[in-house]
Design goal:
The protein is mainly beta. It is built from five helices and 16 strands. The strands form four sheets. The chain has a four-stranded antiparallel β-sheet with strand order 2-1-16-7, with no helix packed on it. The protein has a four-stranded antiparallel β-sheet with strand order 3-8-9-10.
Amino acid sequence: MGADWAAADVLVSHDGVVSQWLAGDQLGLTRDPGGGGGDNLNALSFGMERVAPPAFFSVNPFAQGQPGSAVHQQFQDEGFGFVGGIFQSQAPADSNILYRSTEQVGLTRGPTPSFETEDINALSLVGPPTDVWPPTDVYFSIDFDLDAPTLSSNIFLNDLANVFADASAIGLDPADDLDALWLWDVGDRGVLDPGVDQALFSLAMGSPTLDQFDISQGDILFTDFTGEFRVWKTASQLGLLPTDNLNALSSSMVPEPGTWVMWGLLAAGWPLARSVRKRRKSG
């Protein structure tokens, strides 16, 4: 990972070359370049993603996938801890295919499981106009924070101080960790319109709602922000195992090769426990 990049940053991949697009402190996040502290931006959208299949997603490097899926094939070929890249759901086969490999995105695979494959931890294939600066309409979520555990169930807009949707609007427990996001802000831009705006998302391991409703960290959930959610696609329908962590999600409005792909990056080599439950620096 770039020496000056942090898990709070939004990076861009263009023709397999990765660069920083937006520093995390511009979103009110704490940065720790090259380290394991600071905030972890773990869900990203620009609010322009219409809810329709197929789904494009990334998984934790330790995902194994259902037999016959691209995730499973990569697990078999590469070994435990090396699954990476962007996958596409494959209907009606209840499976997935590889859309972009780790190398095609511009990331690296470690030589041993102790140096894990770099992990796409937030994803949007539908970016904002590139001539808009400073960028607006950046919807995001952050990883679980032991100092402020209710923050991880919120969707923020442009700044950590600006909550677009909280747990009650989504139908979540405040202690849940919203782990991937695909958002369609179809009403007034930047204003939550319950029953009009829509989102797809997943939850990280340890979220109380997973056990309460018997859903998995590989399921994609749907909400229209009326205080409820439902399962949109199960892990099995995506070609995943219930124990696989779907940790990045984007819509089917896919650019041609060579155009901009926006995503957040989780540093390589971090232990799995940290990638799921990382403490945020205070102060």
